Amino acid sequence: MRAFVVCDELGRISSIAVPAENFVEGEVEVVEGECERARGARVVQVEIDRAEPQDLRRIQQELRFDDRTGRLVAKDERRPLEGA
């Protein structure tokens, strides 16, 4: 499923948005953060398995965007996280 994340130059995720047609509960969920104001903030499109509110919060807290692979990875690892 397609999702959009706002991240800074280090890949830290501040916001996640899932188009309404893909959201389990039928509405867009956005998790707010601080790095929209950070230098180098950008929006990237990623694929995620599902989009329930708790999943989006977990993604923001535990993952980061890796420019080299174009995927979400665990904050403390370089390899893509399974299922994200």
TrEMBL record:
Protein's recorded name: Uncharacterized protein
